[in-house]
Design brief:
Mean pLDDT: 89
Distance between the termini: 41 Å
Number of helices: 9
Largest sheet: 4 strands, antiparallel
Order of helices and strands: HHEEEEEEHEEHHHHHH
Shape: globular
Low-confidence stretches: none
Radius of gyration: 18 Å
Strand order of the largest sheet: 1-8-3-6
Number of domains: 2
CATH topology of the largest domain: Jelly Rolls
CATH architecture of the largest domain: Sandwich
CATH superfamily of the largest domain: Jelly Rolls
Helix content: 40-55%
Length: 197
């Protein structure tokens, strides 16, 4: 099985398992999605770009981050295999992205032009259902993250992170996790000692 065939098999499995959608039309996927490989630290999106693509992660970890007024990077979200990244504000409003999307490891993604997918959905109920399920999942992930940042203190946010993403807690360096939690690496180290981790 080639890398591309394996990527499409992973995509179809994730659509069924994560998004409760079943795509039987391989031609639709092959027509719209292309396999892209990224080296660690490469960017798929830079702030100021007008996004055109949605991405399904086959391998690796990516992060969405912002640069604040002081020039510091602030992680907003992590994405891992089986997830879809869709920069919706830029895609739907034709606005430049305010964030960066960067590979934290060597990655493989399936990329598709969003306007073409939207057009395909007009004539394919199965794909339209899939698109709606994916966009709902993207929205819920973002909304959950915002609620956690607003409602929880540092310890609670870290506990949520450990519960929801234990594999990321093992794979990511502490400074990346600290940025995601909105604390300093020193504060995270103290918190980990308090929790006996």
């Amino acid at each position: 099985m080639t890398d591309t065939q394996s990527a499409f098999a992973n995509f179809k499995h994730a659509l069924k398992a994560r998004y409760q959608c079943d795509i039987n039309n391989d031609d639709l996927l092959e027509q719209h999605f292309n396999l892209r490989k990224l080296e660690e630290k490469a960017h798929l999106i830079n702030a100021g770009d007008y996004a055109q693509d949605v991405y399904f992660i086959v391998e690796g970890i990516l992060r969405v981050y912002y640069i604040d007024h002081a020039g510091s990077e602030m992680n907003q979200q992590f994405y891992q295999p089986g997830e879809v990244i869709a920069p919706m504000v830029s895609l739907t409003n034709d606005e430049p992205c305010q964030f960066y999307l960067q590979a934290l490891s060597d990655c493989q993604v399936l990329a598709a032009d969003y306007p073409s997918l939207r057009e395909a959905g007009k004539n394919n109920v199965q794909w339209l259902t899939t698109e709606n399920a994916i966009l709902s999942a993207v929205y819920l992930k973002t909304a959950r993250r915002e609620a956690q940042m607003l409602l929880g203190g540092a310890e609670q946010r870290y506990r949520w992170f450990l519960k929801e993403s234990p594999e990321l807690a093992e794979q990511l360096p502490l400074y990346q996790i600290a940025s995601y939690l909105g604390v300093t690496p020193v504060s995270l180290s103290r918190l980990r000692k308090k929790l006996d981790l």
